[in-house]
Every structure is written in C-alpha cells, then in structure tokens.
Write a structure and sequence with these properties.
Helices cover 41% and strands 26% of the residues. It folds into two domains: 4-144, Beta-Lactamase; 158-202, no CATH class. It has helices at residues 17-32, 57-63, 75-81, 87-98, 146-171, 173-176, 191-202, and strands at 4-5, 8-10, 39-44, 50-55, 105-112, 118-129, 135-144, 177-179, 185-187. The strands form two sheets. Strands 1, 2, 3, 4, 5, 6 and 7 form a seven-stranded mixed beta sheet that branches. Strands 8-9 form a two-stranded antiparallel ribbon. α5 packs across α7. It is an alpha+beta fold and 203 residues long. It contains seven helices and nine strands.
Length: 203
C-alpha cells in the first residue's frame, strides 16, 4: 500500500484519486485474499468541501442495487438512502472529518437496501493528501454490521426482560398475594394495575 502519515493516506507523485483507489483496492485484495466489503472515496476542495463522491459497484451489490442509476454517485442522492434519524449525525461527522476537526471518520448508521429494509453499516474513512500535504479527498470502506447490531439489541432486550421479571417478582411476591390480619392471603385481582406496573417497568 502507499505512503501514510498519521491517519492520512498520501498520494504518490502524479497519482490521481482513481489511481489511488485502484491501488488500495488491489492491495487489500492481496493482503486478505478477497476484495474489501465495499469502498467509497470523495474529492474535496481546499476548504474541505465535497466536490465529488464515488461508491464501488460492490457497495451497490451489497445493498441490492444493480446500477449507478439506482444508486448514484451523488451526495444529495446518498442522503435520501439514509435513515432519517441518522442524516444529521452522518453529515456532521463527514464535515468534521473533511475539514480536519476529527482525526478519522468512523460512524455506524442505517442505509436503505433495494428491498426497502435498512442495513446497519460501519463507515470508516481517512483523509487523502497530496505530496505537499494538501488535503484532496477521503478514502474509506463500508462494512455490513446488521447482524452484530441485531444481536446486541437482542441481548439488551433479554437483559431488560430479566430485570423486569426480577423486579416484578420481588415486589409482588407470593403470587400477588397480600397479607391480611389473620395471616391468611388475599389474591389481588386487579389485572389492570398489574399490567400498568409492567408497562412502567418497560418504559
């Protein structure tokens, strides 16, 4: 792979962004035996503003899109594929990375597949500089982390359910019975109250 300074990738003399992308892609294929999951690169002006963005065909395949027409190399179009709750965070981090306010771009967000469902992805990126140290773009990768996120959510829900059951059992011991003066037990029949208590614990 090419030269690297800190968290930045440096273009070789007279090398274009397309040449860099091909070099990094081929190097990753040799190292890992397979091509990266998916990659992207963008070109930036001297102020870190986006001038062009490109997505690999493998990224389109991963999302189920068949052509550039379905998934264009355009930022405005790309934003429309993101989950509405993730748009602001993605743009904020992308701008911060492009202008050098953060060392490295790394963010998890949801992007819409061709079938309408959302895929969780981890997007990473590093600044690309020319031989004079001028920032000219960013190069990065997309990794499908949907299964990881779903597993984590399942584990968190199972933990929450266990805590609810434990708390409910401790508070309503002896099968929802209340002790009365003669040491016998009276079964509570207020189902609505029980349901409300469960709902409070879930919130």
């Amino acid at each position: 792979m090419g030269e690297s300074v800190g968290n930045n990738i440096v273009l070789r003399q007279n090398e274009t962004m397309d040449g860099l992308v091909e070099r990094l892609y081929n190097s990753a294929s040799l190292v890992y035996g397979i091509a990266p999951v998916a990659y992207w690169h963008e070109e930036l002006d001297e102020k870190g503003r986006l001038t062009a963005i490109h997505f690999s065909d493998h990224m389109r395949e991963m999302l189920g899109y068949k052509s550039e027409e379905e998934f264009p190399n355009e930022l405005n179009a790309f934003v429309t594929f993101l989950h509405p709750d993730d748009v602001d965070l993605m743009l904020k981090n992308a701008i911060a990375a492009g202008t050098g306010k953060i060392d490295k771009y790394e963010l998890d967000y949801r992007i819409r597949r061709a079938d309408g469902n959302y895929m969780w992805c981890k997007a990473t990126g590093e600044l690309v500089k020319d031989c004079k140290g001028k920032t000219v773009g960013m190069y990065g990768a997309f990794i499908d982390i949907t299964e990881v996120v779903e597993l984590k959510e399942k584990q968190e829900q199972e933990k929450k359910t266990e805590e609810i059951i434990k708390g409910f059992t401790e508070e309503y011991d002896a099968s929802f019975c209340g002790k009365i003066s003669d040491n016998s037990y009276q079964v509570f029949t207020d189902v609505d109250a029980v349901a409300e208590k469960i709902e409070d614990m879930m919130s």
